[in-house]
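Subject: sequence -> structure tokens, single chain

Hey, anyone have a minute? Need the predicted structure for the following. Not urgent.
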Amino acid sequence: MNIDILCEKIELQPQIRNRVLSFIEDFDFKSVDKQQKGYLIYRNMNEALTQTQAILGKDTDGIKILSCMLKVSADTYEIYQKKGVSDKIYFDTMKCFTRFIDETYKMTGELCFDRYWWTTRQAGCHSWLLDGQLKGMLSDNSNIICFQNRFEIFDEGEVGKDFVEWLYNTKSTDYATLPENTSLQINMKKHLLAGGEIRNSYGRLKEIY
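Reply:
Had a minute. Here:
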């Protein structure tokens, strides 16, 4: 898999795709080879990200780090195949890049990539979606609870606030002003106003999946 084909398959925004392809024309990925391999090992991800950014230098629109992450994603295609993961699941998973850019555009009006801190977690799962407290806010057959049930939680993780952006499409931490358009938004808002917190829990996919 090469980056150009991956960009096409995940329907990356044309403007972003052009910027990525322009960058990789003159970039030597060997300069970040060690760091790229680091993304494949969970405990090394954060260090690999920090080192990659230091090597890349100024990256106002995030195209440099996006290009590196797309390269890693393209390189893992064969790993997915060997594990019997279908193309649909692979490309649907990698569409996170496209979705994140869309979400940022809706909030800021700028076409850029600013979710590099999250996409490194695509290799396992480390997310607020795995916080067990959500079971008290949603029905047993909700998509989020069905997702949670696929994982074995091995660490409750640290308290985070990034879920606010995903759930409410805002970076505001003024919880009283958060919208109440869905049952989860309503229940989460009550939880937060009562002093509750949400954790980015760590989980491993159960063998059955």
